[in-house]
């Protein structure tokens, strides 16, 4: 598992946000997918879609439910608002099924790409900086104690604290790719991957 | 004292040497310095001495003009006031020397003087805000009407005569008057007429004499004499008349641009941080001018940076000050003392890194950033300028970094997160 590809992804994300792209693609690997899902969970990117070399259809061009259907749904929700709660598994959803858009994924893994939707707020990219913490030649493993210090803006194990406003660090642990604060909450350590801030 | 003089002479007793004796016979040792000894120096008193005869004159004048209470008067006072009030009056009498009143006090004699004695240094709630009567205090509904021409003239004459009678209790002086007396009389008559015109009896009248008396009663007047007073000595000294003050067109334009008045401009502190000469090489030769970089801030979250350049030094400085005030922008401050997280900004080859710090840390930054932080009202800050330290670029980079902070609320909105500040939840919110 080389970190060189991750370094390329980091640079690519910075370049794409500088160029104000709305959608960009990165090579697919398990690490990339997990990290991107972590970024999406933290709100840095809007969408993560597995697809081919051509980008997936934007949500506005996907088939939408008919306006009459939406109106009926709104009426039903107004009269019976409890239908907004999730239903037990196996039961038929009262508001109608979810509209799932299927994306054609190529059989050949080499043709697959991970498509990411980038976010912008007030004319500024939400994700501006993304840097590796561990380097391909020097991995850094952090304990939960280290992470406790780092998330409290102090330096630990030669890793600088998260001092910038809204800065996040992602680690790969035996429970998957997690954000540093979540690691502290769950008291687990891991290998630091990258730090992200706007 | 000469250096040539041998040390033997310096330390030897005066009587054993042939050298001239010191002026003071009590000291046998020669003084080591040329400064005359303390008693030899001429002492001057702090105030000119007054001759006994003059002091006597002053004393007699003071006692004649401001006499002490006689026993008759104290008896009369005792009938009116309580013993504690009498004691207060006596203490007040004893505290003030009549000679001081005579030499320093000024008693107003002009017709516009206040009806009571006051040095106007304080607002006295009893005399300055005298009790007022409202329409509820009138015994019954009284009707009045506006005066016609002849009634008005008659009323004015009557009121003026009353006022003059108050000013001249012994009657208006007649016959040959000296110029001072004449001027005084003229003044008094003018004042009496003006006061009569302003009197409500000149405008309104009634058949009922009690209503006319009510009109004359100053307690019914809604006019409260507002006394023009200045609070402190500094304000008194810096007071200027309106015509004295120079109207600066540049300042006027600035105030128009900001929508402010002059009072707001007083709270702005400006400081010129960079001054140097620049030269423009033309075919005519070199044209030298001065460059100024000024910062402006109100010490409470506003900060501006302005540049000015002119051949005239004062002109350039003014340009930069106005530009700085015009360019003032709000600086977001965490707890009104430090910045939100670490900042970094690059201008040219200059990079400025600013770090937020805990309370009480202080401004541990270089002098230019210190001035900016102080003008913006930041109290806890650390900074680094790892690359070029060009003064102008350091100031610009710091200002831009402070202005373009990303606030936690904005970041939360951008990421679709919910943000709750729990810092002041614990310890009863007494966290600084």
Automatic annotation (TrEMBL), chain A:
SUPFAM superfamilies in alphabetical order: Ribosomal protein S8
An example Gene Ontology molecular-function term: structural constituent of ribosome
Keyword Ribosomal protein carried by entry: yes
GO biological process, one term: translation
Gene Ontology cellular component annotations, sorted alphabetically: ribonucleoprotein complex; ribosome
Gene3D superfamilies: 3.30.1370.30, 3.30.1490.10
Signal sequence, start to end: none
Family matches, as Pfam families: Ribosomal_S8 (PF00410)
InterPro entries registered for this protein in UniProt: Ribosomal_uS8 (IPR000630), Ribosomal_uS8_sf (IPR035987)
Coiled coil: none
Keyword Ribonucleoprotein: yes
Record's keyword terms, sorted: Ribonucleoprotein, Ribosomal protein
Top-level taxon of the source organism: Eukaryota
Family per record: Belongs to the universal ribosomal protein uS8 family.
Protein name per UniProt: Ribosomal protein S8
UniProtKB/TrEMBL annotation, chain B:
GO biological process, one term: translation
Presence of the UniProt keyword Mitochondrion in the record: yes
Sorted UniProt keywords: Mitochondrion, Ribonucleoprotein, Ribosomal protein
SUPFAM superfamilies reported in the protein's UniProt record: dsRNA-binding domain-like (SSF54768), Ribosomal protein S5 domain 2-like (SSF54211)
Keyword Ribosomal protein attributed: yes
Gene Ontology cellular component annotations, sorted alphabetically: mitochondrial small ribosomal subunit
Transmembrane stretches, start-end: none
Pfam families attached to this UniProt entry: Ribosomal_S5, Ribosomal_S5_C
Stretches assigned to the S5 DRBM domain: 268-331
Biased composition (Polar residues): 14-37
Protein's cellular compartments: Mitochondrion
InterPro entries documented for this protein: Ribosomal_Su5_D2-typ_SF (IPR020568), Ribosomal_uS5 (IPR000851), Ribosomal_uS5_C (IPR005324), Ribosomal_uS5_N (IPR013810), Ribsml_uS5_D2-typ_fold_subgr (IPR014721)
GO molecular function, one term: structural constituent of ribosome
Region Disordered: start-end pairs: 14-46, 130-152
Main localisation: mitochondrion
Family according to the record: Belongs to the universal ribosomal protein uS5 family.
Purpose: Component of the mitochondrial ribosome (mitoribosome), a dedicated translation machinery responsible for the synthesis of mitochondrial genome-encoded proteins, including at least some of the essential transmembrane subunits of the mitochondrial respiratory chain. The mitoribosomes are attached to the mitochondrial inner membrane and translation products are cotranslationally integrated into the membrane.
Protein name listed in UniProt: Small ribosomal subunit protein uS5m
Organism annotation: Amniculicola lignicola CBS 123094
């Amino acid at each position: 598992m080389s970190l060189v590809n991750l370094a390329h992804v980091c640079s690519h994300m910075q370049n794409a946000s500088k160029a104000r792209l709305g959608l960009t693609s990165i090579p697919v690997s398990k690490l990339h997918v997990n990290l991107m899902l972590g970024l999406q969970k933290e709100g840095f990117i809007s969408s993560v879609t597995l697809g081919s070399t051509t980008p997936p259809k934007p949500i506005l061009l996907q088939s939408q439910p008919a306006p009459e259907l939406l109106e009926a749904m709104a009426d039903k929700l107004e009269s019976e608002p409890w239908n907004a709660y999730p239903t037990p598994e196996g039961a038929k959803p009262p508001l109608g099924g979810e509209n799932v858009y299927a994306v054609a994924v190529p059989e050949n893994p080499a043709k697959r790409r991970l498509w990411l939707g980038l976010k912008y707020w007030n004319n500024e990219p939400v994700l501006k900086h993304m840097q590796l913490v561990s380097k391909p030649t020097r991995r850094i493993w952090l304990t939960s104690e280290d992470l406790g210090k780092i998330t409290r803006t102090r330096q630990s194990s030669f890793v600088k604290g998260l001092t910038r406003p809204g800065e996040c660090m992602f680690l790969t642990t035996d429970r998957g790719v997690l954000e540093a604060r979540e690691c502290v909450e769950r008291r687990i350590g891991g290998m630091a991957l990258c730090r992200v801030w706007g | 004292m000469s250096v040539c003089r041998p040390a033997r002479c310096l330390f030897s007793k005066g009587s054993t040497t042939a050298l001239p004796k010191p002026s003071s016979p009590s000291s046998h040792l020669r003084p080591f310095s040329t400064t005359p000894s303390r008693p030899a120096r001429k002492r001057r008193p702090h105030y000119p001495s007054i001759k006994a005869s003059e002091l006597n004159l002053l004393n007699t004048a003071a006692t004649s003009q401001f006499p002490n209470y006689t026993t008759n008067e104290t008896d009369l006072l005792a009938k009116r006031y309580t013993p504690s009030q009498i004691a207060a009056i006596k203490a007040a009498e004893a505290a003030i020397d009549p000679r001081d009143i005579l030499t320093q006090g000024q008693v107003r004699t002009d017709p516009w003087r206040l009806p009571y004695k006051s040095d106007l240094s304080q607002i006295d709630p009893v005399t300055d805000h005298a009790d007022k009567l409202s329409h509820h205090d009138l015994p019954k509904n009284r009707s009045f009407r506006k005066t016609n021409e002849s009634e008005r003239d008659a009323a004015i004459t009557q009121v003026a005569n009353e006022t003059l009678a108050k000013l001249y209790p012994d009657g208006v002086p007649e016959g040959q008057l000296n110029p001072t007396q004449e001027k005084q009389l003229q003044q008094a008559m003018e004042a009496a007429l003006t006061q009569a015109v302003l009197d409500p009896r000149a405008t309104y009248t009634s058949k009922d004499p009690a209503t006319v008396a009510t009109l004359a009663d100053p307690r019914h007047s809604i006019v409260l004499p507002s006394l023009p007073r200045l609070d402190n000595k500094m304000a008194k000294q810096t007071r200027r008349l309106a015509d004295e003050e120079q109207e600066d067109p540049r300042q006027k334009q600035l105030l128009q641009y900001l929508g402010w008045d002059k009072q707001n401009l007083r709270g702005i502190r400006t400081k010129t941080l960079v001054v140097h000469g620049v030269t423009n090489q033309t075919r005519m030769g070199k044209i030298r001018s001065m460059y100024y970089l000024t910062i402006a801030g109100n010490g409470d979250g506003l900060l501006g940076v302005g540049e000015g350049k002119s051949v005239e030094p004062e002109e350039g400085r003014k340009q930069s000050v106005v530009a700085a005030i015009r360019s003032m922008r709000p600086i977001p401050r965490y707890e009104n003392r430090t910045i939100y997280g670490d900042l970094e900004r690059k201008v040219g080859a200059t990079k400025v890194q600013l770090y937020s710090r805990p309370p009480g840390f202080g401004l541990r930054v270089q002098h230019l950033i210190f001035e900016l932080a102080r003008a913006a009202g930041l109290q806890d800050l650390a900074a680094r300028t790892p690359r070029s330290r060009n003064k102008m670029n350091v100031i610009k980079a710091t200002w831009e970094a402070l202005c373009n902070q990303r606030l936690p609320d904005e970041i939360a909105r951008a990421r679709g997160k919910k943000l709750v500040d729990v810092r002041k939840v614990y310890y009863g919110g007494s966290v600084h």
